[in-house]
Amino acid sequence: ETGVTQSPTHLIKTRGQQVTLRCSSQSGHNTVSWYQQALGQGPQFIFQYYREEENGRGNFPPRFSGLQFPNYSSELNVNALELDDSALYLCASSSGGNSGNTIYFGEGSWLTVV
Amino acid sequence: GESVGLHLPTLSVQEGDNSIINCAYSNSASDYFIWYKQESGKGPQFIIDIRSNMDKRQGQRVTVLLNKTVKHLSLQIAATQPGDSAVYFCAEKEDSSYKLIFGSGTRLLVRP
Q1: What pLDDT was estimated at residue B100?
Q2: Pick from A50, A98, A105: which is nearest to B43 by CB?
């Protein structure tokens, strides 16, 4: 039990639709990162939020966007869904921005785009 | 570059034996390394971490070894149990960076 909770756990969307995924970070953690994990692969970094600002982004297009709220919870939004967006979306929380503090993952949200 | 694995290598061990899972990392500037365990349908679970100023760290039944000269990381699991069956990922990170870079993963199968 990491204390990182994500919702929904599973969802199915149609190509072209938009989706919002939610994450509550572990108590005391002010940094939230989002990762995409395709089947059979390791997680790929999407972006990180620290103190409500995006402070790092991976190789994902602008239709992937996010928010962090004052309570450090976060949302991942994906617009104009494509079939290749089908994946497990993972939220990770830690404290202190980039510093080498332990990073804990939630159980993820499984997104299927049809 | 970033490591991505399409075909997971598999390690099969007998219950009770020791397991050694290896990882070759890509960035000589990485300061921090983590091993994660991922069971089917679940998120990665933190196992153990190590910083670059160390070469060995022990936890409960697990040991991580770091060889910076050859950029190699290993996870040793003592007395492997059926519940250890999962995919194991190593991940690396620079302190100046915001992201974890994951290795390709190894599937551990424990035979009863």
Answers
A1: 92
A2: A105
